[in-house]
Amino acid sequence: MIQVPKGTFDVLPDDAARREVLEVHAKRILGAAGYRRIETPTFEATELFARGVGEATDIVQKEMYSFDDGGGRSLTLRPEGTAPVCRAYIEHGMHKLPQPVKFWYLSTFFRAEAPQRGRYRQFWQVGAEAIGSAAPETDAELIVLLADLLDALGVRARLKLASLGSPETRAEYRQELTAYLRDHYDQLAWEVRARIDLNPMRAFDSKDERTREIMAQAPKLLDRLTPDDAEHFEAVQRLLGDAGLLYDLEPTLVRGLDYYTRTLFEFDSEALDAAQSTVGGGGRYDRLIEQLGGAPTPASGWAAGVERMLMAAGELPIAPVLVDLFVAVGEDGAGETAFRLARDARRAGLQAQMELAGRSLKGQLKHADRIGARYVAIVDGQRTNLKNMESGQQDELQPGEVIPKILRGSRFL
Ligand code: HAM
User: Fold this and answer.
1) Ligand 1 environment, Cβ below 6 A
2) What are the C-alpha distances in Å from 75 to residues 4, 71, 110?
3) Largest CA-CA distance found in the chain, in angstroms, rounded
4) pTM for the full predicted model
5) Which of 269, 308, 310 gets mutated to test ligand 1 (max ligand atoms within 8 A of its CB)?
6) Residue 412 has pLDDT above 70, yes or no
7) 126 C-alpha to ligand 1 centroid (Å)
8) What are 139-191's pLDDT values in tens digits?
């Protein structure tokens, strides 16, 4: 038995219907704010992610599906969407358009992670990117839009907010934090000691009681922001407050991508397992376009996991499959007439299906009832009987009279 590859899944019709609901909300909410859909290729030059996402990140180090294209070039199944959208922005000279250029996407992404509930090797994201604006209003707009999408889906999530400042500020802060950790070396848990040089920020996540006390007093990046960065961050917070969004300042928020500057945020849901509780996240990435060979261009965006949103979502109203007409074939067999009638009914705007499984007439009527058909046309030799399934009324009609009769008695009137 061949099964789906580990960490992947089939989207069955019922799942697809819920995904369509999500897509309609995303399109409505993002479209209303001027975001337009973009679709980039499923694979890109490996170099794009190495440079864009960052050589030192887990994604680039361990999680990329990379392969040789046969001509000695390395390609990679996209692990995320921001670097590709920036590549497209540069490649198509979109700096010449009125700025910012706002995009949204709903696509598949690939990461070779250890599969578990909410963590897959192929997964879907809805994302939004606004390229060409440094305004704090852009960050706030993006965050509000994601909050609106989560709201529309009935996902209750907590917003965590931070600012990273610039890479220069971060480098200085890292030195200060490392020195602080060294000064308190003896009081730190051994696993924190081991990571002082590798990743001093991890010390903030320690579960060790003593370490936590030390870290409560440690210098915070938020207190080291330049006046410009601090002002930008305050403006974002004011706008969010004004929009009625509640958030927790999380000075030690870290995300797995290297391109962030200034605003950084995440939405967490308690409806998900703790290790995969982030439904979506993003931030500003003012240096990325330049890193990828474009002119310096400020930008900001987010992505949210479709599977995680759907897991945390409330009841979604799925549109039922409507069947106005089921065309049954009688004993004398009239497959071609039946085919024509179903086809013409669809052309007239009705939802029409015909018998395709060779059932007996009794079986066909049962099937029509099961799928909720409003009318059944029984085509038998030259005769066509139309049965109203609700009233039980049955009329013998000329073939040309069937569709007008249904239209007269339906919502099209
Ligand atoms: P990310 O945090 O890596 O950000 O992914 C965003 C969301 O995608 C996560 O919060 C999660 O819901 C979902 N996700 C990530 N990995 C998996 C997985 N293996 N299985 C299921 N869901 C997953 C980014 O990708 C950035 N490009 C976001 C961004 C856009 N930043 C700025 N613009």
Assistant:
1) 80-82, 111, 113, 118-120, 123, 125, 127, 129, 255-257, 278-283, 285, 301-305, 307-308
2) 23, 11, 13
3) 96
4) 0.92
5) 308
6) no
7) 9
8) 999 999 999 999 999 999 999 999 999 999 999 999 999 999 999 999 999 98
